[in-house]
Each structure stands twice: as C-alpha cells, then as structure tokens.
Design brief:
The chain has about 180 residues and is an alpha/beta fold. Helix content is about 30%, strand content about 30%. It is built from six helices and seven strands; from the N terminus they run αααβαββββαββα.
C-alpha cells in the first residue's frame, strides 16, 4: 500500500492544520520532523531560529534546540495589540489581505545569523516579510526550512532569497511521522 503524499494544497488548509497538530503532539514525530528540518543547517553557525505563529512555533523550538540556537518568535499582530517601540513590525499582503508581523527588538541583536522555520511555504510573502523585518533589525537571514513547499520548483530561483531554502517535500521516510490525511 502506498503512503499518502505530503500535500497541504490537495488536502486543504484545515485538514493540513489538523494533520500537523496531531503529528506534533507525539514526541517521536516532533523529534524526527525537527531533526530533518535542522539537518542541512548543522555546522552553519545559526545563532537564532525565527518561526511564525502558530505551527511554526513548535517546529522552530525543536529546530533551535537541535542547532543549539536561540528562538525568535515572529508574531502576527492583532488589532488588540498595543503599539510599542519595543517591537519592530512589517506589514505585507498575503492572499489579498494585509497582515503585520511583529518581533520583539531585543531578541534580534545586530549581526545575528538567523534560520527561518515554518510548516508551509506557499506564496513566499510571509518569508519575504520576515526577512525584511529581521534584516531591518540587523540580522542576516542564512536560510529557511519548511515541512512543505507549494511551488517548490521556484523557491531557490527567487532573487529575494540568496540562500538555501530547505523543505521536506518528497521525503517519503517522514510520512509515517507526519501522518496520512483524515
């Protein structure tokens, strides 16, 4: 019997989210997935791992532990959030909606080498916004890692990046840890 392909586009965002929440609730799954995301960056002197709210948080934490790096939480700004000089923000358009990321400034010292981690790369707008935000704070984005990249054939060609983008598409050995579709 063939294992299902890792493809959030085919299964829909809600099904993908449920699948990831279920997979990440198990220590063995979480460990295998985060080790696979971190592996290409071992020895790259990554100092911090930046991750997106919400599914990126547990993935980023696991990758940061594997790489012995600190963690930078890239939060989605909500209307109820206070404006504060303690945070740097970046507003961007994603799927025809304006969104804003915010990062606590003191978590990103100038010159920090950062790896960006999330569960899913789709349009690239979130990654671009995070890179803009982190580089404005003086960090150097050294790479990105995702469980799944939609349109992955174009990721390394985008001139915005200039660094390695790693994803687990096609990693059939990880399907048992990520789980099948509902």
């Amino acid at each position: 019997m063939t294992q299902p392909e890792i493809n959030p586009v085919l299964e829909g965002k809600r099904a993908w989210e449920k699948r990831m929440l279920s997979a990440l609730s198990d220590y063995t799954n979480l460990n295998k997935i985060t080790e696979a995301l971190a592996k290409p960056f071992i020895g790259c002197q990554i100092q911090k791992v930046a991750c997106f709210e919400a599914l990126g948080f547990p993935l980023g934490a696991g990758v940061a532990l594997t790489l012995k790096a600190g963690l930078v939480l890239v939060r989605k700004k909500k209307e109820s959030d206070e404006d504060s000089s303690d945070f740097e923000t970046e507003t961007f358009c994603d799927y025809d909606k304006l969104k804003t990321f915010r990062v606590l400034k003191r978590t990103v010292p100038s010159g920090t080498r950062i790896l960006v981690v999330d569960d899913l790369y789709e349009t690239g707008n979130q990654l671009r916004a995070a890179i803009n935000l982190l580089t404005r704070l003086g960090a150097t984005a050294t790479g990105a890692a995702f469980i799944c990249c939609r349109g992955s054939e174009d990721v390394n060609l985008d001139p915005c990046y200039g660094f390695h983008v790693h994803h687990l598409n096609g990693r059939e050995d990880l399907i048992p840890f990520i789980g099948g579709t509902d």
